[in-house]
Design goal:
The protein is mainly α. Strands 1-2 form a two-stranded antiparallel sheet. Helix 2 crosses helix 7. The radius of gyration is 23 Å and the shape is globular. Bound molecules: iron/sulfur cluster (SF4). Iron/sulfur cluster binds next to loops.
């Protein structure tokens, strides 16, 4: 089967991606849940130390070295290492981070075992909620340059952990209601994980034929119906269902296979909006546009236009911004925010219109083509995160900006080829659903190519 294609990997232990080894890894996760739990609490301890301690110490100089202050060390770990690694791992392997390592997941599940155990209400289950939270947090982070302040990092990341704890204390009985319905990061992770080469595959025939296990059903933390599991969307890859009824196994599939086999019913409006305006628009605006001279000029013009109105100076909550160091000027922050929002909407709308034209006005097809852009946009996002890592290296005297254009080229060419290959397979798969099926791929390639150029030629930070 195409999904089970073997990828050879020249290690002395043999092919680590052989199907039986992949399956064995899933089973290992299932058997070693006790050890995974110990690992999770170890990560919680390190996470809390790196989050809380720097915020309690005197504010470090913005340009001190990584090993000169705990604050700069924590910044390098959180934003220089963790963020790019998590993005790439989601895109290639799925949401293992969420199910095995994420401290918020551990905290919320633990709290939920001792909490009130209420059912998640309807408003908490709104599909747009995580996207909305993610967008608000991202705007706020960049508005105040949060990465450079241990206190603001504590406020944002610690606030998210506190919210996960509270969600666990109120909702779910030993389950991760937070991860399933609320986690802001999961809104992006669930898109990226659709491209992953690993997934937990359910054999429905074997499942239905197997006797009901004495141990009962699967303890799936994000409350998934494992029997009908078809997508990586919400699967935390925790491995607890591996081997259940001899029907669930960690398996390989072709990169992007899940998107290439989407049906029109699988295309959801909120996800398409999320891909266009958050994954592509917003994350391009904050990771690439916000470092450009154009953004500086537009912000300056907007600032001039907004003027020095007394309301902005006197009434607004200045204390929020006073911690940011870089932007204590509220009008400047509003101008910068307007520029970022403008870029977000412009880029998202341009890509959306381009896909709509490529699909000859067929909305479902245009939506499906937006999913095909996830690899390119995900790699673009990872490159933005890597740029931040390079800026941390530069602060420590290691100037490595010259490798960035080549890194970009390698990443963007890979993302472009990956997206194009998904679109090609998707169009083959959709033949029976399409009214007009000719001349879709070339205009899609043009849209993807222009987006790739925007990533490749984004300004390099000074
Ligand atoms: S389906 Fe549920 S139990 Fe199985 S790996 Fe995914 S999150 Fe874990």
């Amino acid at each position: 089967m195409e999904h089970e294609r073997v990828i050879f990997f020249p290690l002395h232990g043999g092919n680590v991606f052989a199907p039986e080894r992949v399956k064995a890894f899933g089973d290992l996760l299932q058997r070693r849940q006790d050890r995974i739990r110990k690992l999770q609490w170890g990560i919680v301890a390190v996470y809390l130390f790196l989050l809380v301690t720097p915020a309690c110490l005197p504010e470090a100089e913005a340009r001190t070295g990584v090993f000169d202050s705990l604050a700069r060390f924590a910044e390098a770990i959180f934003w220089g290492l963790w963020w790019p690694a998590v993005i790439l791992s989601m895109l290639i392997f799925g949401q293992f981070w969420c199910g095995i390592l994420c401290p918020d997941g551990t905290i919320t599940e633990f709290a939920s075992r001792h909490g009130r155990g209420l059912k998640a209400p309807g408003w908490l289950r709104k599909p747009a909620l995580p996207l909305l939270l993610f967008s608000l947090i991202t705007f706020y982070e960049h508005l105040i340059d949060a990465f450079r302040s241990a206190q603001i990092t504590l406020l944002i990341i610690g606030g998210t952990s506190l919210a996960s704890l509270c969600t666990g204390l109120i909702f779910g009985q030993g389950k991760r209601v937070w991860c399933r319905f609320v986690c802001p990061g999961a809104s992006i992770f669930s898109l990226l994980a659709r491209c992953a080469v690993l997934h937990f595959k359910v054999d429905r025939v074997a499942w239905d034929a197997a006797p009901r296990p004495a141990s009962g059903g699967v303890d799936c933390p994000p409350l998934l119906d494992v029997r009908r599991l078809k997508s990586n969307e919400k699967c935390n890859m925790c491995g607890r269902c591996s081997g259940h009824r001899q029907a669930v196994a960690l398996s390989l599939r072709a990169p992007g296979e899940e998107i290439a086999t989407l049906t029109p019913d699988d295309v959801r409006r909120w996800e398409v909006i999320g891909i266009l305006f958050v994954l592509i628009g917003l994350l391009y605006a904050v990771a690439h546009w916000s470092g450009s001279a154009w953004h500086q000029q537009l912000s300056a013009a907007l600032r001039h236009w907004l003027g020095d109105a007394a309301f902005w100076q006197a009434e607004a909550p200045r204390w929020i911004f006073s911690h940011a160091g870089a932007r204590t000027d509220l009008i400047g922050a509003v101008a910068a925010l307007s520029s970022i929002i403008g870029m977000t909407l412009t880029l998202g709308a341009l890509v959306g219109v381009g896909l709509w034209l490529a699909a000859h006005g067929q909305k479902k097809l245009a939506g499906a083509l937006a999913y095909a852009l996830i690899p390119l946009a995900g790699i673009g996002l990872a490159l933005g995160a890597v740029e931040y890592s390079l800026s941390i290296l530069a602060d420590n005297g290691v100037i490595a900006w010259s490798i960035l254009p080549w890194l970009r080229l390698a990443g963007i060419v890979t993302g472009l080829a990956w997206s194009f290959s998904i679109a090609q397979r998707l169009l083959r798969y959709w033949r029976r659903h399409l009214e007009r099926q000719t001349f879709v791929l070339p205009p899609f390639a043009a849209v993807a190519g222009l987006l790739a150029a925007a990533y490749q030629f984004a300004p390099i930070p000074a």
